[in-house]
Amino acid sequence: QVQLKESGGGSVQAGGSLRLTCSFPKSSDCMGWFRQAPGKEREGVAGIFTGALNTFYADSVRGRFTISYDWRESEIYLQMNNLKPEDTAMYYCADQPPGKWPCGAWTKYTRWGQGTQVTVSS
Question: What is the pLDDT of residues 22-50, one digit of tens each?
Fold first, then answer.
């Protein structure tokens, strides 16, 4: 069972930054970050193809969030800048099983970490 472990969440004021880290024993072709706010469905935030480092973003975070991958550390990161109160959510690392779907195909992610909480105050 692949284990994805997130860290780096916390509380920050609007306009601030946080960096999330996801560690895993073995990377998949597509790895990503999702979030779920109270009372809302989980949504895809950012994805990365670990082979060529192509990245995919939800419209709501494009230009503010950056996903990256370090193969030497077996980690992916989510750098979040200019955070807004609506970014408040539990953030999850996830990966896709082997397949031919693009890494922005959010419904194809099937394995999840336990999540890390991000809270942005106004």
Answer: 999 888 999 999 999 999 999 999 999 99
